[in-house]
Structure prediction request, 408 residues.
Amino acid sequence: MSTLTSPAYHTAMVNNLLRIVLVFAMTLPMLILYATSTLGPVLSLDLKFDITWLGYLIMSAFGLAAILSLWAGAIVNTIGTRYALLIIFFAITLAFTLIANTQDFYGLMIAAAICGIAQALANPVTNLLITQQIPAEKRAFMVGLKQSGVQLAALFAGLVLPGIAFQYGWRVAFGVIVPVALLFCIATLYVTPKQPTKSSQAPTRSFPNSLTQWLMSIQFCVGLSLSAFVTFLPTFAMQQGMSLSLADSLIGIFGITGMLSRIVLTPLGSKLADESRLLFILSAIAAGAIAFTMFADPEHHWCLWVGAIGVGLSAVGTNAIAMSMLIRDSAFGPVTTTSGFVSVSFFAGFALGPPLYASLANYSGSFLLGWSTLIGILMTACILTWALASARRQQETAQLSARISHSS
Prediction:
């Protein structure tokens, strides 16, 4: 039997394709955020809307994603992984087709909201696939790899989309995503069984326990800071005299460092007794990186690069670590349900971050108040990580006491 036709070779090919599908199930839904950031000035000029409206565009995507995430885990449990993945890729196909043909800002908002459907399902379905089809010893790495897909979107939007837009127009830049999403609709049929894989857990109307609530609060703060930072970094950079192409490169370097952060830090976090301390360190570094950003001026563009790299290496990794915590520790609850809960808070932060930042910028007449606010929010996240660590210790102590009492 030829090696190319052997069952082992076929299995290896399917497993590799599964990994690619998992990565792009995270990449494509988040592309709307980074594409809006890098091409926002061009969209604003062509469709004639104020640049600060970008905040409300992002809010339409992540606001709907936050609402749908309340039921996303139950939806994935009910319809199974195959249909959930198909919905994700079809929603992206529809959204980017609409963007490429829209004539006004409201068309952009509708398309962004459609992306919110895909964003809501992405974490629950990919986390469920990992628990079902990836060996336990490889799950932490796989979580980091698939979460790096979010930053792959930033890399693509920062380094590739502007070149396409300048050469062929922004409509073509958005349009090239459509055939890619359709290809992944087809790929989904090869990596999921004909009988859709569903969770063995019945859908439940549960509420997050105390551990999950603390993690949700942390992710809300990080999501708010990240979305505002990424949305307005290129615009702020251009205010400091940086060219549009170079400002978009900031998002590209942010994407590269974010991918490294998620791939490297997630397995590292899984080896720690409690990842909460790592979340504290990363949130603190992100606050420092934004502090560098706010002091940028036409003579100190290096502050912008330090900010993009610092936030990419730190805050970006926290969401992957959070998802790994949910898969690793059953104390948080069922993985699909808790993934949905954490996504609710993360997306809610993403939805509120840009309009909050825009409002502060309009109120103060500059971006400095917005940067200061983001630093304060990240410092709040640091405090919340200590609360999460304390809650985990108390729960472990209570469980140990219960076991001792039971054995005696």
